[in-house]
Design brief:
Chain A: Its EC number is 1.17.1.4. Chain A: GO terms for molecular function: iron ion binding; xanthine dehydrogenase activity. Chain A: Keywords: Molybdenum, Oxidoreductase. Chain A: This is Xanthine dehydrogenase subunit D. The complex is a heterodimer of chains A (720) and B (285). Chain A folds into three domains: 112 residues, Aldehyde oxidase/xanthine dehydrogenase, molybdopterin binding domain (Aldehyde Oxidoreductase, domain 4, 2-Layer Sandwich), CATH 3.30.365.10; 181 residues, Aldehyde oxidase/xanthine dehydrogenase, a/b hammerhead (Aldehyde Oxidoreductase, domain 3); 327 residues, Aldehyde Oxidoreductase, domain 4 (2-Layer Sandwich). In chain A, 31% of the residues lie in helices and 24% in strands. Chain A is built from 20 helices and 26 strands. In chain A, strands 3-5-1-12-9-10-11 form a seven-stranded mixed beta sheet, with helices on both faces. Chain A has a six-stranded mixed beta sheet with strand order 7-15-14-13-8-26, with helices on both faces. The radius of gyration of chain A is 26 Å and the shape is globular. In chain B, the strands form four sheets. Chain B has a five-stranded antiparallel beta sheet. The radius of gyration of chain B is 20 Å and the shape is globular. Chain B is 30% helix and 24% strand. Chain B has two domains: 164 residues, Uridine Diphospho-n-acetylenolpyruvylglucosamine Reductase, domain 3; 105 residues, 2-Layer Sandwich (Enolase-like, domain 1), CATH 3.30.390.50. Chain B has 285 residues and is of the alpha+beta class. In chain B, 39% of the residues are buried. The chains are: A alpha+beta (720), B alpha+beta (285). At the A-B interface, helix 2, helix 17 and helix 20 of A face helix 11 of B. The complex binds flavin-adenine dinucleotide. Flavin-adenine dinucleotide binds next to strand 2, helix 2, helix 6 and strand 10 of chain B.
Chain lengths: 720, 285
């Protein structure tokens, strides 16, 4: 198939394997000489291991722990604070201490029950509130940043202001609920350990293994197997599992499989960071913003992981899509003795956008202006500075996108209709809400240039088939298809002639992790350039190979110390309108209509983009009102999908979406990032719709029926 | 190696009953509760301490028929079969549509829902307000038990080990002139376990309440129904005065004692249960 317009959809490369059910996932794999691993996990939140008593192990059953680790006992991510197997201190319920390996899972579970470990318990920090209160104690603050207008100037402005509004906003956990739980297999060979599994970042895992096994480059190899969803949950977490199976395989000289069941996955793997955000905004007498201070706290859980980077993105988005005069922000990553939090689609931005959209919405009520109208007064335009003194240098289409939705949703009339409906209906109340948002594409600052340094390779065979040699994972988002399309189109050959074999670190250079909405824009651009190069050298019937390396766009240099400069090379944009109906007797919220406009440069495949929109929005909307996860005394309470409650097909309504073209020169065919953007607007739009329906304000997400009933009930109580 | 399980699947009900009389067995109808209850961790088959007997294929247990104004529902009718059956009252069908999702509804049975006796069983509130009777059969013959006597607590039922529930009988359900509603409150629109549920039943004759019944689910160890409170409303004319409604709500306020759990809070459950009651009582007929 020759591709005319790059956006036209083609059959996905993995379509047949997936719809026929033939594609094997890691838990389907069985190899010779394979044993299973099960983990003994800490039953307490914080304390010291005093004694370990192991059961009598039958022949063929062995125990693996920190002593079997050839290298240092930590999972190489950023800080050295996450043990592979806890050996002295435990910091959260569920932290791995030992692994039992052997042939039969049944026997392993029985043995697991017979392991006896005694602890000396210490006082744990269970909540973010507690951590904020104790943030000056040693070890509690793991990272912090501060930037923006000087506090003296802000203080002077506040002094002369008509009014100062302070708001506290809380966001909850979010669980990824990828269809395929985490799983990893280490294949044992005399001279090599091959780790295979469900993952987003091959080289993160490889680097973690090089450290844990203290071995040479060619003694470990990482291969991605079919991955059933990631959403960030398979960004850093699999590195720990890879260390577990690889260390065990080395120790017992057998292949070791470790697969979580759903409840284990829900209870011990990383989640979206709960956050608390404080806003302090000074207003003039007409309700115009004079200054704004934001303090943001992230609950990291028991170790730092990627939390400092998540905090950076949260702070960089703390002013939303607005040009706020005299803006100041400060943020902290705080330790609690709870399950570690980590990467999740949006990476800190969903918390910030939920908060700022909520706050600006509430300010509009002060000013007695329609929220959308108020937001538009502050909307950034091309050429405006960012909050870090960078620049929005590309065209911004937000005004067109908003106008389009005002028209297609019939916003004004709908709002009036809803008001009438609400006056007549005692039980049900309808409301309409909006959100405006952006997403910075790629790594923050100069991360791509200084840390990632992506390389891609194209290899052509004698029969003119071209293979992509990159380290990026298709986890369902569709890059198997989109990246092949880019290469086929550039080479002007048929799409079927281009292949993207399962990435294997022995075969592929490091093109970076599959995160941060970078794959299409950054890796896609490198592939486009590589294809162009191959085309100029093309010799039919001859084996050929080309390589390309990352080139940095000229920008205002990013300075992580002062938090100044261009934080991202480019931004993608979005506008969501949401209509809801709230049952005031039960607090249940029903979505009635969802409209979404996006600008992602250029769409590489329409159907794949629609998949990102529908999936991202379902996940983002649910973050605002449906999905609820709580931790009590360090224990996650929702251990099953039905208790946690991600949306079913009966909860999501058809999503009316449109994507605007705005080609970006440094992206392939003009494409920018799209994967995370689509999630970000959901929660704030649903919040403002619920507020509109009930004519009230909320200071948290998710706005569950419990929260709604509580607010309706207290209001009545006050009146009475 | 997986442990061996003995399983029986007789062609006829009398053979099944004889076996049950000889040996204590675990009955499996649709299996949608049993399999979850006996689930092991990943990669290990479910564990049963007793032999299994399958009953879901027995045609005697799959009939739906009418005698006078009474409706008889075979215990092993699946939800999907009931949804498609013309005799099944609309409120029951709408309750079924809130249960699980189509795949589970193709297996799950009404008999299983009753015998599982979960505080959140979604068939139960309606069966309580319909004054349903459970028909049990053993080698010794048949006996009828009122549903509210049959269910004694969470997973506790009045069944002897040699008995099978064969039918659920809804007395006088096919009479005209009753107003019946069911409301389920879950955390989402499918595959959700009720946080609160409510069934209301009212028969009116010329603005006067002839009969009125309420049942609340998921707010106590089993369905909450009070004939005493119901009696206070019989003979009253509609619409009820606010004070009359307040009295009834206050009485239920005293007897509804829900709990906090991972799915919701006690305060929420109680508030919503009473809201739904008040709403039902305020409806203009
Ligand atoms: C994913 C999922 C979602 C679900 N959603 C809901 C929901 O929304 N609402 C809800 O109420 N339930 C729900 N359930 C629970 C379950 O599906 C229902 O309770 C169903 O009605 C059980 O019927 P069954 O035939 O599968 O029972 P089984 O599992 O076969 O049996 C349940 C119990 O009853 C006994 N039993 C069954 N039939 C008889 C009989 N005729 N005589 C004597 N004893 C008998 C069995 O021995 C067992 O103890 C859900 C279950 C799953 C797995």
């Amino acid at each position: 198939m020759k591709l005319n317009d790059i956006s036209t959809s083609v059959p996905k490369k993995d379509h047949k394997g997936k719809v026929s059910g033939q594609l094997p996932y890691i838990s389907d794999v069985k190899v010779e000489n394979m044993v299973y691993g099960v983990l003994y996990r800490s039953p307490i939140a914080y304390g010291k291991i005093s004694t370990i008593q192991l059961p009598n192990l039958p022949a063929g059953y062995e125990v693996v722990g920190s002593e079997q680790i050839p290298g240092p006992n930590y999972v190489k991510i950023i800080k050295e604070d996450q043990p592979i197997f806890a050996s002295e201190w435990v910091n959260y319920i569920g932290e791995p201490i030992l692994m039992l390996v052997g042939k039969e899972l049944n026997t392993l579970y029985r043995l697991l029950n017979e392991v006896k470990i005694e602890f000396e318990e210490h006082q744990a920090i269970y909540t973010l509130e507690d951590a904020i209160y104790r943030k000056s104690e040693s070890g509690v603050t793991m990272a912090s940043y501060e930037f923006g207008e000087s506090l003296e100037i802000i203080s002077a402005i506040e002094h002369g202001a008509h009014q100062i509004i302070e708001e506290e906003y809380d966001t909850g956990y979010q669980e990824h609920v990828y269809l395929e739980p985490q799983g990893m297999l280490a294949l044992y060979k005399d001279d090599e350990i091959i780790v295979q599994g469900s993952m987003q970042c091959l080289y993160y895992i490889k680097n973690a293994l090089l450290s844990a096994l203290a071995c040479g480059e060619d003694e470990v190899r990482v291969i991605q197997s079919a991955t059933g969803g990631g959403f960030g949950g398979k960004e850093e977490y699999p590195s720990m599992m890879a260390c577990h199976v690889a260390v065990a395989a080395r120790a017992v000289k057998k292949s070791v499989m470790l697969v979580y069941d759903r409840s284990e996955d829900m209870v011990v793997t990383t989640k979206r960071h709960p956050a608390k955000i404080n806003y302090r905004t000074s207003l003039d007498k007409d309700g115009n913003i004079l200054s704004m201070c934001v303090d943001l706290f992230l609950d990291a859980g028991a170790n730092e992981g990627l939390s400092s980077v998540v905090l950076q993105r949260a702070l960089l988005n703390s002013a939303g899509v607005y040009k706020i005069p005299h803006f100041h922000a400060k943020g902290f990553v705080l330790k609690t003795n709870t399950v570690p939090n980590g990467a999740f689609r949006g990476f800190g931005a969903p918390q910030s956008f939920a908060g700022i959209e909520s706050h600006i919405g509430h300010l509009s009520k002060q000013a007695k202006i329609d929220p959308l109208e108020y937001k538009r007064k502050y909307l950034v335009k091309q050429g405006d500075p960012t909050i870090t003194k960078g620049n929005f240098r590309d065209p911004v289409l937000m005004e067109e996108m908003i106008e389009d939705l005002l028209y297609s949703s019939d916003y004004k009339k709908k709002k009036e209709d809803f008001q009438r409906f609400n006056q007549q209906n005692q039980r049900y109340k309808k409301g309409m809400g909006t959100s405006l948002f952006l997403h910075g594409c790629g790594f923050t600052g100069s991360g791509e240039r200084d840390h990632i340094k992506a390389t891609v390779k194209l290899v052509k065979t004698k029969n003119d088939h071209v293979s992509l040699k990159i380290s990026n994972s298709d986890m369902g988002q569709g890059i198997l298809t989109t990246l092949c399309k880019i290469v086929a189109k550039e080479l002007d050959i048929s799409y079927e002639q281009v292949f993207y074999p399962d990435p294997d670190t022995k075969e592929v250079p490091d093109s970076g992790p599959t995160v941060a909405s970078r794959t299409t824009m950054i890796v896609g651009k490198l592939l486009e350039r590589a294809a162009r190069k191959l085309k100029t050298q093309w010799l039919s019937g001859v084996e050929q190979e080309v390589e390309e390396h990352y080139i940095h766009r000229e920008m205002i240099p990013w300075n992580e110390k002062t938090f100044t400069g261009d934080a991202y090379p480019a931004y993608s944009w979005g506008v969501n309108f949401v209509e809801v109906e709230v049952d005031t007797l039960t607090g249940n919220v029903r979505l009635e209509k969802v409209y979404a406009n996006y600008e992602v440069g250029k769409v590489i495949d329409e159907r794949i983009m629609k998949g990102q929109i529908d999936g991202g929005l379902a996940q983002g909307l649910a973050y605002g009102y449906l999905e609820k996860m709580t931790s009590k005394q360090g224990k996650i309470q929702q251990k099953s999908i039905s208790d946690y409650g991600p949306p079913t097909s009966l909860d999501v309504v058809p999503i009316d979406s449109k994507v605007f073209d705005n080609p970006y020169t440094d992206g392939p065919y003009g494409a920018k990032g799209a994967g995370e953007l689509t999630l970000i607007g959901g929660a704030p739009a649903v919040q403002s719709a619920i507020e509109n329906a009930l004519q009230t304000s909320f200071q948290q997400i998710p706005i569950t029926p419990e929260v709604i009933i509580n607010s309706l009930w207290t209001k009545e109580g006050e009146e009475g | 190696m997986a442990e061996k399980v003995t399983a029986y699947r007789f062609d006829r009900i009398d053979e099944t009953l004889s076996q049950l009389n000889r040996e204590d067995c675990a009955i499996i109808a649709g299996g949608t509760d049993v399999m979850v209850l006996h689930k092991s961790r990943r990669g290990v088959p479910p564990k049963f301490s007793k032999p299994i007997v399958f009953i879901d294929h027995l045609s005697e247990l799959k009939q739906v028929y009418q005698t006078d104004k009474d409706l008889h529902i075979g215990a092993c009718c699946t939800y999907t079969e009931l949804l498609e059956h013309p005799l099944i009252p609309t409120p029951i069908k709408s309750a079924i549509k809130t249960i699980a999702a189509p795949a589970i509804r193709n297996r799950g049975t009404v008999g299983g829902n009753i015998c599982n006796a979960s505080p959140a069983g979604d068939m139960l509130p309606l069966l309580y307000v319909y004054n349903a009777k459970v028909l049990l059969r053993s080698v010794n013959g048949d006996r009828f038990v009122a549903i509210s006597d049959f269910i004694q607590g969470p997973r506790r039922i009045q069944r002897l080990h040699n008995e099978i529930v064969t039918e659920i009988i809804l007395p006088s359900v096919l009479e005209e002139g009753t107003h019946v509603i069911f409301e389920k409150v879950g955390n989402r629109n499918a595959d959700a376990i009720a946080k609160v549920s409510f069934a209301g039943f009212m028969r009116i004759n010329k603005e006067r309440i002839e009969d009125i019944r309420f049942a609340f689910g998921a707010v106590g160890p089993t369905m909450i129904r009070s004939r005493e409170i119901e009696k206070k409303l019989v003979g009253k004319t509609l619409p009820l005065a606010d004070a009359e409604i307040d009295t009834i709500v206050a009485e239920f306020d005293k007897i509804i004692r829900p709990i906090d759990d991972q799915r919701s809070t006690a305060v929420y459950r109680k508030t919503v249960a009473l809201n739904l009651l008040r709403y039902f009582l305020s409806l203009k007929q």
